[in-house]
Task: structure prediction
Amino acid sequence: MSIAVSAHDVTVIYEDFKALDGVSIAVEKGQSYGLVGESGSGKSTLLRAIAGLAPVASGTLEVNGRKLEPRRRDKAFYRDVQMVFQDPYGSLHPRQTIDRLLQEPLAIHGISDAEARIARALDEVGLGTGFRFRYSHQLSGGQRQRVAIARALIVEPSILLLDEPTSALDASVQAEVLNLLEQIQRDRGLTFLMVSHDLGVVTHMCDQLAVMRSGQVVERLSAADLVAGRITADYTRNLMIASKGFVRTEA
Amino acid sequence: MSPLLTVEDLRVSFPTRTGLVEAVRGVTFSLGRERLGIVGESGSGKSQTGRAIMGLTPPHAKITAKTLNFDGIDLLKASPAKRRDLRGDRVAMILQDPKYSLNPVMTIGRQIVETLRTHRKISSSEAKERALAMLEAVQIRDAGRVFDLHPHEVSGGMGQRAMIAMMLIAEPELLIADEPTSALDVTVQLDVLAILDRLVAERGMGLIFVSHDLRLVSSFCDRVIVMYAGRIVEEIAAADLRNARHPYTQGLLSCMPEIGQDRHPLPVLDRKPEWAL
Result:
């Protein structure tokens, strides 16, 4: 299997704060790779570093075998790698219709037949063309996240960076969006790199995962290992226990 | 024993340009000195129920109820001054995110002391002593240092503990916790819940725990009320949750991805219009 995304010894420094401290991961083509950890662990920073949104101080990033420069990304990169952000309330332009939102990436990349593509993209995320001329404030959180996914998919990327794509959504809506993402991955053979604080979501979606803490990878393991409890790091074990819910200690 | 809180046919509605929006539509329950969970998705009216009891509904909203009674006091007829006396003293509320609900320009210690001195006639030195003791009770090590910090200087978990300390310092009889741990990391979440659990048990408070997380609530509370579209669709003992009868409750339980369960695709909620009737 070839490697779609790899990070080797990547360090990200904001002023005097080390957000990422020598992180290495390798994601195979067509795989779903999960990054788990609590806030401040650097899981989102790694995603942003790949997308060119974080100041990489050292280390190498590669996408589909091509080495990336620390800050600059060319258009071809963005055609290949797209990102879905956590908060669908913040990531869609409030004064643009869905149609206008979806035209933007097509215009940037000079892709023709916008008409057909927009209709297809909306169809694919289960919204239908009825939503095309609405504004994002007329949609629910789940519908907005579907629009954000449609916007990412419309330029036909091969890699999707998902930054907590469902944590702002209700549990039942989360299930719908997760199912949609799985469906898309099957249909298009996409590579997912997914950040989440929810171990349940990550083990559901991903084959491989990395547990992060204070800018470092604590443990890399497969979802099957995690489920079977083949865990080496104490921190991962704590996360496991915590995700099972509250347990009254005495009485 | 008469219940601490009786709510009968509570309705909260908001006039909007497009007509009256009913957020809560006839909620009835009573609460003793126990832990009651209110669960529902966004827009189900769970938070507005808590806020109506606390008296924090926006002034333009309309509240009606057959009964809204806290320990013999009719909350709907009580004067604003009376409600202010109750708030923070006998009824307290913990909000979701300490980043937004603590005063950013006051030290944590001063905020706690302010709460206490609003309701109790005590000297400032005694108030400070009690605030420090309370900070220790919520397991803040080095309480003396945290006392002098501003909210932005502490972590989310620490801020939430400070808020719990502030809410419990006047020893309320009823505590409403509105998503008290949703803004926290999972590992910190459990610490905060353990503290809350211990204090509620020790002081014999009534607790209303409002949350969207059915599983968390069921592991923490004695009894769970499930709300949908402003109404209670099911009331069930937390231990019996697995045998929930309403399809909405069952749907909420089964749509969460769980570690060790291989279900692809996940079951999704098939919302029936008659649930909202």
